[in-house]
Amino acid sequence: MSILKLQNVSYTYDGYTKVLNGLNYEFEKGKVYAVVGRSGAGKTTLLSLLSGLTSPSEGRILFDDKDVQKIDRYQYRSRYVGVVFQQYNLLPHLSAVENVELSMRASGKKFKDKRKRATELLDEVDLDDSLAKRRVLKLSGGEQQRVAIARALSFDPDILLADEPTGNLDLATQEEVMDIFSRLAHEKDKCVIVVSHSPEVAASVDEVYELASLGKSKKQRAGNEGKR
Questions:
Q1: Fewest CB atoms within 10 Å of the CB: 48, 64, 70, 117?
Q2: Based on the number of CB atoms within 10 Å of its own CB, is 78 exposed (0-12), middle (13-18) or buried (19 or more)?
Q3: CA-CA distance, 68 to 50, in Å (whole number)?
């Protein structure tokens, strides 16, 4: 069953520049999706729509069969959707574990032991206790991206959106990060949606949505059923 659905979704800038046109996509829990396409095709716009930060010009986006425009979008973003950015967007003067704890507080959810839970999340993305206590500026790019993933998971969202999460990483680290996304989808039943220009990323996911210019789109299988 799909947790997110786009029904004839279009988006227009300035009232006349159409970027997305009539999209009908469905996203399920337990899968990793890639959204690919040329620069300007609307990939980041699509993530903004899925996260509830932007409203479609036409059509509807459904979360659990509820129109996102008709629910509390702050609660939707702070409880059900986690976002991972290419530039990490971490607070550099805080440690890895403190960055995760800060997100937990912002979500408004109650946690019995924030430090313990934050440490567990960092361990899930392959950061041990010594790295968890280290200031973010002392971490490598790949380690910082792992912190960003743990932070996005801090309130246990159903959906994880990632905007070019491997864009600043070398190929080996990119593979490690994509392995984390695969585990989160296949073992933790998350719906993971990744925007990327990388063919390696597209080849490692369950399904690919390709955005063409002017919002035309097509769907293709990633061809790696054995990795599910």
A1: 70
A2: middle
A3: 9
Q: pTM score, two decimals?
A: 0.87
The rounded distance, in Å, linking the Cα atoms of 76 and 1 is: 19
Amino acid at 115: R
Count other Cβ atoms within 10 Å, centred on residue 56. Answer: 21
pLDDT, residue 39, reads 82
What pLDDT, in 10s, does the model give residues 88-100? 889 999 999 999 9
Is there a contact between 61 and 68 (Cβ–Cβ < 8 Å)? yes
Structure tokens given for 5: 């659905």
Looking at the structure of the chain, the number of domains it has is 1
CB 196: neighbour CB atoms within 10 A? 25
Rounded CA gap, 82 and 153, in Å?
A: 6
**Domain around 39:** 31-53+73-209
For 105, 109, 115, the CA distances from 193, given in Å and listed in that order, are 24, 24, 28
CATH code for the domain in which residue 125 is found = 3.40.50.300
What's the CA angle centered on 160, arms 24 and 131, to 5 degrees?
A: 160
